[in-house]
Amino acid sequence: MRNVLAAALMFVLASGAASGVDLSDFGAVVDFDESLKSLSLSVREGTDPTPDGRLLMLDGVVSAIEVLDAEEASFRARLALVTGEWQGLEKVVMYSAYVDIRGPEFFSRIPTRRNRNTSGDAITTNVPALVIGRFAGITTDSDGNSVPLVEGLYLRLLQ
Fold it and tell me: Distance (Å, rounded) from C-alpha 62 to C-alpha 123?
């Protein structure tokens, strides 16, 4: 998955260079240093993960989908985005964030009772994804743990 993320980043940077956009402009808009892991750790430690408000580019696996409003015009859903890493041979540490997506452009991508005809890029669980979004705050999961909340602006499946 890191290879796909690196390729996507290189494409963005090459596109900017080809169109005459200064590469430092990207750094002013997108926080390339932040990851799902660092965002999750910042929230766990009680620090503000993105004090400057730049966009985030996060990759992970969609582990859950909760449709909050199933109407096409006002569609809203909350995705759980997760990643993890092995520590030693027996322990996996998980990092997560919730991503809120909204609008008719996402309606056709998430299967619901009202929308059984999803597009070919349907967002389902257990699928790797790249999310561009803004840090929106901190919420809690079902266990009461603090979890970052991201306003998802763009979501691409990495299959």
Answer: 8
User: What is the DSSP secondary-structure string of 93-115?
Assistant: EEEEEEEEEESHHHHTTS--SS-
At 81, list the tokens: 């985005």
Asked if residue 20 is part of any domain, the answer here is no
Q: Element (H or E) spanning 9, and its range?
A: helix 2-18
| Gap between the Cα atoms of 29 and 79, Å rounded | 24
CATH number at residue 54: 2.40.50.140
* Residue 71 · residue 112 · CB < 8 Å: no
Is the whole model's pTM more than 0.70, yes or no? yes
Indicate the number of domains in the chain.
1
Q: What is the pLDDT of residues 87-109, one digit of tens each?
A: 999 999 999 999 999 999 899 89
- Residue 13 domain-assigned? no
Q: What's the domain range around 67?
A: 32-157
Which residue is it, tokens 């796909």? 4
